[in-house]
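Hello,

Our lab assistant flagged a job as stuck in the queue for most of the afternoon. It eventually completed. Since we weren't sure the result was trustworthy after the delay, we are filing this so someone can double-check. Below is the sequence as submitted and the structure that was eventually returned. Let us know if re-running is recommended.
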Amino acid sequence: MDSDVFMNQISLALSKPIQQRCADLAILFQRGSLRDLQAIFPLLVDNIFGPQGTLSWGLRSITVTLKSQDFHTLQQFLSPCGPFFQLIYGLLKDPFIKYDFSVAFLPIIVIFKSRPPNKVSKLLKTNLFGEVPSEYTAVLQPLEKHPRSEIWRSETILTVFLDMWLNNDQISHSFENNFNIASAKQPLHFNELPAGEYIRITRVLVKQLHGFASSGKVDDSNLGELKKITLPMMQGKMYIFLRNLVHRWPLDGSFRLVLELWLSFIQPWRYPGYPHTKLPPNQPEVHPDMDDNTNTATKAVDREYLQFIAENILAYVIIFQQLLPRFLRVDLASPKNSLMLYRLTKVFDQPNLVNLIREIEYCIENNDFSPTHGFSMPNSMPPLSPTSKWSSNTAYFDPAQMKSGPNSTFNASSRVARSFSNTKYSGIVRQKINELEGPNFHFKPLFAGAAAQEVFELIGHIKKAERTAENVIRARLEEIDKNSSGFMGFFKSLLLTGENSTDEFTLEERKKVPLYLNFSLQYLTDMFQITEPSNIDQDITPENSFVHQQNNITDNSLDSLLTPRRVMERKKTITYEGDPDLHPIRSNEFKLLVRMFYHWASKLNEKYLPLICQLYYRDDFTGRFARQIIMKPMTIYRYDKSISGKSPRIAEHLPPRISFRRFASHQFVAYVVIAILISKLFDYSLTSIVFFVIFCWFCVACFKAFTDNTHVYEHHSYNDSSLTDSF
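-- returned structure --
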């Protein structure tokens, strides 16, 4: 086939709908020569994924529920055995075919990761930055004698994903000063958080790698070798990635993305990698990615995962220690925060998980390590929260001095686990600590000793948040009863759909909060073996409270936090100083009517501004009557946020104008409905009723105009620019 004709057919296929597009491309892939396929491959990648911001196939928006046929077509087209990968396999047969990958797509940290410019890392040309690192030589230049020569391409792809997606972008300034090229410093950015979509994609990668590695238990092929090295390649990078994310992520609901990424990483048993066989008709399909938010019994963690827990004990212990102070700083009466705490405690309270973690903790022989734990290259790990009772970078811990706290108890038989200290797991854990945290890191166990003070404070925090959540629910129910009572409440219930409240959460979401908190309390007391949680409130005083030390909270109640009740109280004292027509839509207004009337009023004000101002400032009866209709001029205030570091309060003048906002209220609509009902009930014409209402309003306006003796003086030009800015 001629190359020009082939390119034209490819372009024509790419312009067709999804199903026809995939079918035509599959046929063209089979007909094209190797040279033609090499030429169209970069164009095809750009068209499908749009890496440069160009139009793509919209893979994110195509789901099973919305466009199931398109979804299944794309799933077949992009599957490992589908036409797209068959094209890739065909191109890989020729070792001389190259696909240029722009360096601009690489993160800056990947290019300059811990190396001087003449020895830059994950597959760049040697004539661009220098020699390729020795750890990638075996991957990039496979030899016949190499034991993994059959899987080097897949291993390379996995290396690229892990090094590019899980790289730590915490670059210290001391490292930046080592660059001799000034142009290399400019692109470096510090403290940048990845986007939410980035975290979601990384979680998909983690789950796929877990399933892929689990399927290698009975695989003795060359691919089985890749399955054995998959998790070891990911573990260290994932721990560093998560440690920095937990340390730097803001205290809001978006942290759920980071939390679920961590929970997916530390639960390989959720993704067993079942073979692709059809299930019996009476057996439901298992969805390991579904988040179980119920208090149902879970399967015990098998002992076969003890090796994984030992290799990743820092991901279980240290990150958990990072998270507990975080939950002490947030409002657990919020549905999002209570759900995150529930997910955390439910995962760790899985049967046998705490026992396996405790067994590994006993294997660690604690030496007198230095308590310091700061930023140092190349292990630039964030510090943990310093407390007087529990933190892996503070006081020394001796298992021999382990005692049960006043509200906790431990099984005596668990101390026998110290005999594991000479097993292989002790060496594994010691090696991981040195590699990931450095030789000066001091490890303190999570479950091998008495529960730390943060645990008791968190339990007290949960109990107070549970009472607050119940009060919020009670207030919401009273508000609903109040709004639905009476004559006006009846019509509101007929006209409104859903809840009418300023709360960002629905009543159903609020009702789940006490359940989440109650289950979290049960899980915490169970995993830490606390027997008397009822006395926790009395055991915690402001002097030894971590919340008091960190946040300087003097009031020992949840009211000191920004609870929904306090937010509602603050709203009552806040006054709106902007344009009344741009006031946020109130609970007693219809959103559609507000926007529609605002659009109409804006058009009239823009077109007839001089005439409106002329009528308003007339000093005769016409002017007095116009002032009954036209909004009076006023001074509004806004904050200029365009000035970096400052937000000055700026005054603006609004001229006379027309506003229809009052007609978007529930009360006005209810009057209209009553008028319609009366016309239908007494067999009156709706036009006559409307005319009667307008006549009555005209009489009232004329009476007010006759009795109005005020004088207005024009002090602003008709072509006021602030009106245009407002509308």
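-- support follow-up --
The delay was a queue issue, not a problem with the job. The result is valid. Residues 195-276 form one domain. Residues 306 and 356 are 7 Å apart (CA to CA).
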